[in-house]
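Render this sequence as a predicted structure.
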Amino acid sequence: MNKLQKTLTDMQLRLSVVHGRRLTHEDLALLAHASTRAVGEWMRGSTTPAAMSSVLNLMALLPPEDVNAVLKAWRETKMQKTKARGDLANSKSIQ
């Protein structure tokens, strides 16, 4: 298992706790705005999105408080876009 696979598996487990149930690749795809096939390939390690690895590498260089600030800004921007377009993922919210 490569570094990205381990990170994605950890994120899947943490998100499962947040949502109170085991999340499937389909659930992760919905949350990530990606295809189920892409998520499955990432989890198997058959493909590695270069941009994802690069962003994680850059974030790993930041102090924890800066990581939190970057993620907070990302989350707020995402929520603004979601509200503006009535995002399908929100209407099918993962329970």
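Summary. The first helix runs from residue 3 to 19. The helical segments are 3-19, 25-32, 36-44, 50-61, 64-85, 88-91.
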